[in-house]
Amino acid sequence: MSILSPRRPLLQLTFLLPSCTLPIHCTPHRHDSSARRTTKRLRPKQDKAAIPSHREARDHIVFNPPSSAPSPYHTPLIFLPPNDPRRRLLAQAHAHANPYQDPDRRLPPPVRQPSEKSYHLDEAQIAELRRLRAADPFKWTRAKLAEKFGCSEFFVGMAAQATKERMDWSKQLLENTKARWGRRRSNAREDRTKRREVWARDE
């Protein structure tokens, strides 16, 4: 009786092996060695010309521009000779960038017509303004008094302050309005108040 030997090894005939002996396919993972090589390539070395020398006794300027054509916009004047034509180009560029630096040059027309302040109210008119404001502050508001006497609402507020009754009514109206606010608007107004306090402290 002759024994026939298979042409392929028995380990390659997986259908003859039990299921428990089959190899488990593993997903390849990146190891520390490959990750170190990748990060090293992404971290190029700094040019030696940009590194300050420890032999220098004092601080100095390191000027290391990229390899490109010289430009008067990028080269500082300290590195240009006195007779370099780029100095003239740089001066022309500054004059073009600031066309209104010349005091004799005409400015563009204003967007809004400037208003001139007028101080035309005398003592009698200011006393009348205060009398109307104290008599009926709900009728004679700052807007109506400013329109009647031809002045600004800011001046009305300085010349004739509102009565305590009017101020209490305004505060109560503001409190009723705040009571209808939601959580989002309340937080936004609180943040606005905190920002103004920080601005007042110059922080």
Could you characterize the architecture of this molecule?
The protein has 203 residues and is mainly α. The protein is built from seven helices and no strands. The protein has helices at 32-42, 85-97, 123-135, 142-149, 153-159, 164-179, 183-200. The longest helix is centred in the C-terminal third of the chain and has 18 residues, at 183-200. The N and C termini lie far apart (102 Å). The mean pLDDT is 77.
Total count of strands: 0
Mean pLDDT: 77
Unreliable stretches, pLDDT < 50, 5 or more residues?
A: none
- Largest β sheet strand count, sense and barrel closure: none
- Morphology: elongated
- Helix % is 40-55%
What is the N-to-C succession of helices and strands?
HHHHHHH
> What structural category do the secondary elements indicate?
mainly alpha
Beta content: under 5%
Our Rg estimate from Cα atoms comes to 41 Å
How many DSSP H or I helices?
Answer: 7
Q: What is the straight-line distance between the termini?
A: 102 Å
What secondary-structure arrangement, pairings included, does this model have?
Blueprint: H1 32-42, H2 85-97, H3 123-135, H4 142-149, H5 153-159, H6 164-179, H7 183-200
Helix pairs in contact: 4-5
Summarize the structure.
With 203 residues, this protein is an all-alpha fold. The chain is built from seven helices and no strands.
Task: State the main characteristics.
single chain; 203 residues; mainly alpha; elongated
